[in-house]
Amino acid sequence: MKQLNITKVFRALSNEQRLKLFKMIYDCQVEKLSNKNSTCVKGVDKAFTKACDHLSVARSTVSHHMKELVNAGLISMTRKGQSFTCEINMDAVKAVRQFLE
């Protein structure tokens, strides 16, 4: 993993909508790890729709926030066919925890 820029991380998380989006992705990832029958959405279209509904914003706004989280190193998006998967960068989460300790 490249060096995490802690300033970029906190700037990305300082936006309330991005923070909610990050938390939503994090909670979903934790649920998937602990429960094989997870109800978390699969596929970018459903995930974007859920995020848009949750945040009450347009798809373009969610897309912008996702890019900011990617640029900060907090999440990664991987293309699989015609869809994307989104994953929390747990190394970044650990780095933030270490910084705060």
Overview in brief:
The chain is mainly α and 101 residues long.
Q: Mind describing the biggest β-sheet?
A: 2 strands, antiparallel
Oligomeric grouping of the chains: single chain
Strand content: 5-15%
Number of structural domains? 1
Q: Give the overall pLDDT as a whole number.
A: 82
CATH class: Mainly Alpha
CATH H-level superfamily: Winged helix-like DNA-binding domain superfamily/Winged helix DNA-binding domain
Radius of gyration: 13 Å
How many beta-strand segments?
A: 2
Give the topology, please.
Blueprint: H1 6-13, H2 16-34, H3 44-55, H4 59-71, E1 75-80, E2 83-88, H5 90-100
Antiparallel strand pairs: 1-2
Walk me through the structure:
With 101 residues, the chain is mostly helical. It has a single domain (6-100), classed as Arc Repressor Mutant, subunit A, CATH 1.10.10. It contains five helices and two strands, in the order ααααββα. The chain has helices spanning 6-13, 16-34, 44-55, 59-71, 90-100; strands spanning 75-80, 83-88. Strands 1-2 form a two-stranded antiparallel sheet. The radius of gyration is 13 Å and the shape is globular. It starts with 5 loop residues before the first helix and ends with a helix. The relative contact order is 0.20. The mean pLDDT is 82.
